[in-house]
Amino acid sequence: MVPQDLRYTKEHEWVRLEGEIATIGITDYAAEQLGDIVFVELPEIGRTVSQFATIGVIESVKAVSDLFAPVGGEVVESNAELSGAPELLNSDPFGKGWMLRIEVADAGQLDGLLDAAAYEALTAEA
Amino acid sequence: MAYGPHTNEDRARMLAAIGVESVDELFADIPPSLRASKLELPSPESEAELTVRLRDLASRNRVDLASFLGAGAYRHFTPAVVDQLLLRGEFYTAYTPYQPEISQGTLQTIYEYQSLMAELTGLDVVSASHYDGAAATAEAALMSCRATRRERVLVGRGVHPHYRETLRTYFGGASLVADEIPLVSEGPTAGTTDLAALERMLAGADRPVAGVVVANPSFLGLLEPMAEMGRLAHAAGALFVAVVEPVSLAVLATPGEYGADIAAGEGQSLGLPLSYGGPYLGILACREALVRGIPGRLVGMTTDIDGRRAFVMTLRAREQDIRREKASSNICTNQALCALAAAMYLGAMGPHGLRDVAALGAARAGELESALAAAGAPRMHPGPYLNEFAVRVPAAPAVHARLIERGILAGLPLARVLPDDPSLADALLVCATEVTTPDEIAAFAGALGDELVGGTGHEGADREGVGRETAR
Amino acid sequence: MTSTESEGRPTTPAGDRLGPTLFERSRPGRGGGKVPHPPKDALARIPADLLRAEGPRLPEVSEPELTRHYVNLSKLNYSVDSGFYPLGSCTMKYNPKIDEWAARLAGFSTLHPFAPDDLAQGTLQLLWELETALAEIGGMKAVTLQPAAGAQGELTGILMVRAYHRSRGDTDRSEVLVPDSAHGTNPATASMAGFRTVSIPSAPDGGVDVEAFRSALGPRTAAVMITNPSTLGLFESRLCELLDAIHEAGALAYMDGANLNAIMGRFKPGDAGFDVMHFNMHKTFSTPHGGGGPGAGPVGVGGTLLPFLPSPRVLREPDGRFRLEAAGERPTGIGRVRAFVGNAGILVRAYVYIRAHGDSGLREVSDDAVLAANYLKSRLAGVVDVPFSRPCMHEFVASSASLKAETGIRTLDVAKRLIDYGFHPPTIYFPLTVEEALLIEPTETESLETLDAFVEAMARIVEEAHSSPDLLHSAPHYSPVRRLDETTAARQPNLRWRAMTGSQTPCPD
Known about the structure:
The structure holds three protein chains of three kinds.
Chain A lengths: L6 E2 L4 E6 L2 E6 L1 H7 L2 E5 L6 E2 L4 E7 L3 E5 L4 E6 L2 H4 L3 H4 L8 E5 L11 H10 L1
Antiparallel strand pairs in A: 1-2, 2-3, 3-9, 4-6, 5-8, 6-7, 8-9
Chain B lengths: L7 H11 L28 H13 L6 E2 L12 H7 L2 H4 L11 H18 L3 E2 L6 H16 L3 E5 L4 H14 L2 E5 L13 H9 L7 E6 L9 H10 L3 E6 L17 E5 L15 E5 L12 E5 L5 E5 L6 H4 L12 H39 L13 E5 L3 H10 L2 E2 L2 E2 H4 L9 E5 L6 H16 L4 H14 L1
Parallel strand pairs in B: 1-12, 3-4, 3-5, 5-6, 6-7
Antiparallel strand pairs in B: 2-8, 7-8, 9-10, 11-14, 13-14
Helix pairs in contact in B: 3-11, 5-11, 6-7, 8-9, 11-14, 14-15
Chain C lengths: L21 H4 L37 H12 L22 H7 L2 H4 L11 H18 L3 E3 L5 H18 L7 E5 L5 H8 L3 E5 L9 H7 L4 E7 L11 H10 L3 E5 L12 H4 L3 E3 L20 E3 L12 E3 L5 E3 L19 H37 L15 E4 L1 H7 L3 H10 L6 E2 L8 E4 L7 H20 L1 H5 L12 H6 L9 H4 L5
Parallel strand pairs in C: 2-3, 2-4, 4-5, 5-6
Antiparallel strand pairs in C: 1-7, 6-7, 8-9, 10-12, 11-12
């Protein structure tokens, strides 16, 4: 069961909206698929990104995955702990493994994302 | 068949197990219109016949001349132990160490190679090898563009002309720009990179520079003001790429010391035969912060599940088999055995031996400079050099050809590789190493003196005699 | 590694353990005596600020220690000289020793790359004859021997394609089509050459999906890179259609020649319509793998791309003398991809191999390679999944998908347990299009005893997967080191020796 109060993307990312700030991470499913994560490349603070643009990279020992922006806006914060402890994405993807925060330009974009039930259905099929 | 173990009985057994009558049936998927005509090649040869053929071919190369040729590939002494160890089949017939549990020999030796080169260059991250100095330089320049997200590099004209050509070929594919930094034409720093020009070229804010690529020693053998160029590059937000020669790094200031971000170079001097240009050893090294952008394999130390020390290829996600079209480079097979040879060479020579090689070369080069100057061919540039330099020789290409007849390979006529620089039309690039002998120097100077005087006087005859002995 | 062929039981290698690094063996004062001492003032003429502040901290070891260091490390390696490598797409055939002898002839090994042509007639002749032979084998008009590896050959080929389209004023061609089963170097090459990669799916029969291919092909296609036989070991049976479509679209056809071992004397890519291909000397032509190179990746071209070959080419004059093209002699060439004309030392080895085999021998190589692969495939068909039942070429793909479903044992576990049986594993998890893939290529130089022993080992392992899966999950047990912590190696990279390291990681012995 994934956290019910979040929105999800088909690329296995989650979004939590608080006011105008969206916190973004990857799901436990994604982390498991990737295996032990060894490195995360996040976008610079201040960068403006559009929805679904490629904004970073997640590397595991044997695989690489692009990170996409689930919503558009300005990057206002990124999780500094990840550079020294990328394993947080494996151990606590919904909590301490959060990746970045975006000041959302258009909150309506979240409506187009999956809710928890739809996301669970997606991963059940896979 | 030459090496296959299969007898006709074996083949019959295999056909029976598969359930076909002949091997032709196994090729049925090839459309009839595409089936090949017979291979028009010579018939097979036995090993004994092959040895005769190969000896004959090899004998058609003239390798007996007294050679002063450098220009990116150098005659050096390699201790006998290197080739003996390299010939161990467990090293040279091993595959890439993708299964680390049964490849610790290869993996540890490459880790050691990386460590040895880190000591020589003063940069902590060294790739397991690249193709050669030229390709390594091109990839170093590409690295600087990726790291800075800029599209223009400045390349000194003191970088080997073939490296600059290779860089342009690689850049053509990537639609990047390489502008050349001119050399100073006169004065005490003649022949080295023009700092004032570099500063002007860095100043264009509309065309920001990703990297400044300069060689030390330069192609002309001169020592360059690396620290100053590094400062200028960094002040403009560019990376500083040093093209280096590994034996020289035993004594010369290192890329780490003068602030280079990336170092590229040719490792042939470290125990690899000249072999008409390959296989050689591309050295590529960088600061730790750039590790994720460096192409090529990397070996790291780790432990196994029982806690033993072990080695493994790491940071693999950079490589083509994982990143595919997003990989920073397509490199797969590199020059691992050459890196192993270099490591063995460094192990056999040790720090003092390597320093002696560099210093002996410098000493011989100093003697060569004096002898050639006395013969009428002075150095073209006043600045310091280690063991390679250009001398002024009127009608250099013609003199060079006549010296060959006298058993001397008098370096490289610079007109051959730098035809666009008229000041180098009458120049020979010569070098000396620890294997250059005083007799060879005397023969060269003597023969050259004769050619420049244009005569065969009494003194000339003596020198000719020496020349002929050497030519045998 | 001790061979287990005759007994078929795992054995414990004796005395094979890691030793210290060269740095840990170093003691001040050891070694020396390799070159004479220089005069004390040798460097006096160099300004002090241009010299390094301290000498490099290279290890000081004596020759006996150096020798033992490397000999003992070599014993930790698996190699073709010690055992079977059924590595699909690598062609791990035997490396003939006459090749090593030839490359070491002083006439070849001491020749300087800037030696004037008159002094290099032997090597130039060898290179020219090798080009001719490769052109004949590939059905191509001309060959360049410059590229140092297959990947560099690919880059050279695709850069020539780029130059060709530009020369026609066609700058819209921004895409290269690559089957999804392709080796990773193909798309990486396309990117390096400035193209976008368009991936073409495979059809259920393992070939390129021709309909998907046709719809992706168009005026933006510069080239299509096809591996033939494919990375599944299957000949593209609809190749004629593919090549016709490529040329109708105005694009060029590139053949990745990694799998040439299957088709020598049976199929000539150039005659079939490929415009450009690369050869892997270290695969088909037996030059040794060296732990990761050096190899060589010559590129063959038809008439269309001939003007764009890298410079300088090796030419033969009417009087029989050989020479290198002069600078500027052929301005259409794409330039250099390396400092000199090629990995000549490797090319000598390939030349010897080709001359040893000759016309009939090379065809026999391919025949035996294909025969051996089909033999192994038929014997393994009852042991593991073999997704494609039609005859394969020199390699075939097997899969542990059923095994995984039944026992939880994956291809990785099978591979690691094969090590305990004295075999190097096949290529695993490639091509990407087959689940739990094992790509198996025996080559033509493995005896039937070896092939049968491999089948036996695989059968035992499948039994073990059912009866004692933990044994496989924790394999290998009998190698010098066991499964490695690759995660820490990537999270905290230790890529060079530092004096402190010895105190943090246990020093063996």
